[in-house]
Structures are given as C-alpha cells and as structure tokens.
Amino acid sequence: MRRMKMSDFFKSAKFITTEFENYFSSKNSPWGQKKPRLYQHTDLIAWKGLPMFTTDFEVDSTDGAKLIFTSLGCVDIYINGKRLEGAEMMPGWSSYDKRTLYMERDIEDMLTVGKNRILAVVSSGWYTGRIAGERYGEEPPAVMLSIVSGGKVIVSTDESWKCTVGGQIKTADIWDGEYRNGGETGYDEISKPCFELDEDWENADVFNYGGEVTPFIGSEVKVRDALALKPQKITVSDGIVYNGSHYGKINVCEDNASLPVTMKIGQKITVDIGQETVGWLKIKVKAKKGTEIKMRYAEFLNDSGDMNRGNDGPEGSVYTINLRSALGKAYYVTGSDEAEIYRPVFTFFGYRYVELSADNEVEFIDMTAEIVGNDNIETGKIDTSNALVNKLFSNALWGQRSNYLSVPTDCPQRDERLGWTGDAQAFSVTAAYNANVYGFFRKWMQDMRDSQSESGGYADVNPRVGCCSSEDACAWGDAGVIIPYNLYKIYGDDTMIKEHFDSMDKYLTGLVSKYGYSGPIPRYGDWLAYDWCDNKFISSAYFVHDIDMMLEMCTVAGREDKIDYYKDMREKAYEFYCDNFMKDGVPVEQTQCNKIIALAFGLLSKEKEPEVADALAQQIKDNGDRLSCGFLRTYN
Fold first, then answer.
1. 540-569 per-position pLDDT tens digit
2. To the nearest 5 percent, what fractions of the chain are helix, strand and coil?
3. Over the stretch 266-293, which tens digit does the pLDDT of each residue have?
4. pLDDT reported for residue 134
5. Is the preceding peptide bond at 463 cis, omega within 30 degrees of 0?
6. Which of 283, 299, 365, 425 has the fewest beta carbons closer than 10 A?
7. CB neighbours (10 Å) of residue 448?
8. Residue 315 region, left (φ>0) first, then alpha (ψ -120 to 50), else beta?
C-alpha cells in the first residue's frame, strides 16, 4: 500500500462532534479561587455519559488496512467488538489552539471482508476537562479519522456518522476520575455491526477546527506491563474506634489479607501497593449485579487521626486533602452476578494506596496496579552496596516514570499535573541517563513552540492552560533553550536543535528587547532553597549561560550567521552580571547557590575557580555535609 499523504487523508475527513454537557467543566478550575467547587470527599456522579460516534462500512479486502485518527480530547476506539489496544489517553496532550496530533494503526486483523463497524468514544481529556481551565474554549470533544486500504480512503468522519451521548462511562475527568456502569451496553457490543442503534443516535455535527493536524511524534502513553505491581498489604476494616484523636482510627478486622478477599457490607479495604506510582488499580470482582464499588486513590495514610497534624480522617485511612480539589476516584457498578474486570480508561491517578468500599458484599478475586506513562525505553541503572543510595535512585526513577505522561509534569496526583518547565529542565539530564527521552522531549519542544508568545516568551507551563501562563521566568522559560542543548550533549542528535533554533532565537532576542541584558524575569529563583539567593543574580547568570549554549548551538544548527550576534549579546550580558553581582572576581553574595552557579556556568576566571570551589566545599562541610540550595542548583 502506498503511504497516504496528509492531503489524501484529510480530503474527505472532518472533525465531528455533538452537543455535550460536561459535568466536570473547565470553568471549575480551582486556580485563583478561595473555595473550589469540588472537594476530595465529594462523590462522583453518574452523569449522562460521553460522546460516541459510529458508522458502518464495507471492505472487499482487509490487506494493509490502516486507521488514521486524531481527536480534541482523548479517544477510545472499537472496531467489530474489539478495542484498539496499544496506547492510552490517545492522542495525548498538545497545544490545542495550535495543533492536535494524528496517530496511525494497522487494523487488518480487526476488519472482516464485508460489513464492519467502528465506534469512537471521546472524553474531554486535556482539551476541555478541568485541567484546561478554559484555555481552549468550551467546545465539546471531537474526533476525526479515516480508514485507508489499497491506496484509497474507505471511510472518513463526516456528518453522516451517527452519534449520541451515553455509554458505560458516565463521567470522566483527568483530575477527578471516572464513573463506569458495567450494567449498560458495552462499547464492544455497540461496535458490532449486528447491534441496532436506537432513536437516540443522530447525525453528527461538523466542527471547523482552526489548528494544524500533524503526525504524532515521540513515545506513546501506554500501560507498562513489565512494571505492574501486586498489592503488598491488604487491610480489611469495619468502622472506627476511639484513640483519643479527633477522627479516631480504623477498626482493623484483618491486617494482612490475601487474595481473594471478601469485603462485607459496611467494611472497607485499604490496598497498599508498596510504591508511589501512576496509573490505576485493575480489579477482578464478583458481586451482585448493580453493586457500586468506590475506589479512592491516595499517596499516604492518616498517621494518627489528629487534626492538628493535618490528618483528614481516622488513623489508617487514606489521606487525600493534599489532592486539593481533585477527587481522585473511580467508581464501578457491576453489570452481572459473575466475575468482572474493571480498570479506568480516561483518567489516571498518582497513588500508593487505594480505599475500596461498596454497597453490597464484594469478592475481590485479583488486583493489579497497572503503571501508565510514556513508554520511554529505560537505559540507566545503578546498583550499589548501600541500600539508601539504591532507594534514592529508585525513587528518582519512579518519579520519572510517574511524571512523564504525555508531557513532563510537576506532580501526577492533585489538581495540577501541568508541564512545568523549570522542573523539566532541572531533571532533563538525569532523565536522559535513565531512559531514552529524546522523542518525548522533541514532542514537548513542539508544544513549547506552539505556546510561545509573539514577543518570544515561553510560559511557565507548557502546553499553556488557564493558569500559570506567565512567561519569561528565569530557569523556567529558559527550558526552551536548556533542554535541546542538554539532550544534544547526551544523545548527539541535532534534530531538535535544528527544529527549535528559530524559536530559541526568538526567545533570547525577545528577552533583550523587553529587559535589556539583565536576563529573564527573576520570578521563582532557586525553588525550595533553604538559603535565600538573590533571584536577580540567578536570572543574570542564567542569561549568560543561555547565550553560551546558544553560541554552541549556532554551529550545530549550521547557523554560523548568528555567531557574531550572540557574541555581542554575551559580552553585554556578562558585563551586566559582573557589574551587579561580582566583586574582586567572586560573587558578592556567598550562599551555596551563588558559588555553585558561578562554577557550573563558567562565570569565574580560571584563577578564581579553585578559591570558590574550596570555599563551597567548606561551606557544605560546615552545614553538616548538607546542601542548602534548591533544585536549580542541586542538579549541577
């Protein structure tokens, strides 16, 4: 089969949508509000369902058949009773006001000669879920796809497709979770040609999308089967007993239960998977049809029941107040009296513990913590004779696995999960040693270009959302320069630098036009530092460092025409740095941060480097052999 060109694919395909009232609206963002509407103790609601789109089509041959698809929101696809496997939260997060990404799949084995049916279920995802904060408007989710075979388009989305709002998944949101009713007709059944659509199915509406649709790049979000975990501890409890605290403690019935385990009416089960991670708990259960099973995800357990310690419930119960307004829950209603398997589809959780409860007796036959994230091939490993060092490395690796999900996030559990740029650049070298993250970051640099302002600014988070979209922050906006440079030094691949060069040039030129040679805005400084270091010093030093990296990248990108320009910029930026923050060849301020930055960025003369390095070593020793700087300096 000849490869279809984009022009062929989209010649007939259209984005289709339908009216949809999103229960978890992007208007309900907690940012900037004193009292968010949603709290962690609020129940999930069985709302109206999600947009579903379907059509029937015929094929004479299945040879070489491909599905090419994209969506505004996250899409799950079924063909002839089979789910399209291989990736989750498709097609991932992009700057929807500028682009969405299309994916390709071989579907030869999913089709049959003759009549076929395809079904697409679309959630709001990153597009118009609460995480978006109205950044991309209030339009309902949409999907566009084509099936191609034999060098021609077999079927494409248009207004002839049938659609409705409904299905098993009643509500879904990245922050808040998912409610699924297994008693309703499954998507696999609806996607079979023999299933009769009722009068609720109407013709789809066409949505005129103003952004680009471009090929997916980088690694995909997947269930990483090799990392799956089993419960390390299962605790069965029944009510609360008094322990002298505000909330009391859970009344433990069985402290180390093994699977299968039965949870009686009124009891709760707390599952400890033994590792902070991201994804969901897949459960195999048997209960009376219509039983509602509730799952609350948490990172910690309440340690005392004492409100003065910040506990939000009885000792031994899941602690969830740190989720802020994110509900972090999954509810499932059983569809039969037989054994069933449930796992979420359109959400994910950052957790170690799961609290299970139900309105009927439930037998939990099996449980598996499925790890979800970008499938970056892991390449780095450290194994030492020191258990604490090994645990430190393990924690860093699990942190990377948990926060690299479509974009590099700051946290995977609460009402944030955003692509914070400062966090990402600070960890980028470590990440590159741990795994092959080149494609992952190449995609994210595309997001940064799409989010870049006309004046050249990179936002604090990328893709931009309804909050945290200030720009030009030192060490945060600088990620648009630092990450391409770091990954080139690690991998030796110049693709990202060449693709991103004009954007970096626009950013640095914009800084000069807006702020002179003082550098980017000193907004956050050395985040989480014990000792305060002048943010303006950090900003000035980072600006000189940016230019030094850019000078090297001019040659890599074949842009020698810009070298003199950046040499002049570097001279003026360094002059500003020395005039304002140096005396007698060393930093005026004498915190660990000042010394580390000056040494790491090569801002000292060769004669002064040993003096400053010795002073830093002594300073760390005098501090009990401890660093006192934040994460901007800890990674150097």
1. 999 999 999 999 999 999 999 999 999 999
2. 30, 30, 45
3. 999 999 999 999 999 999 999 999 999 9
4. 86
5. yes
6. 365
7. 27
8. beta
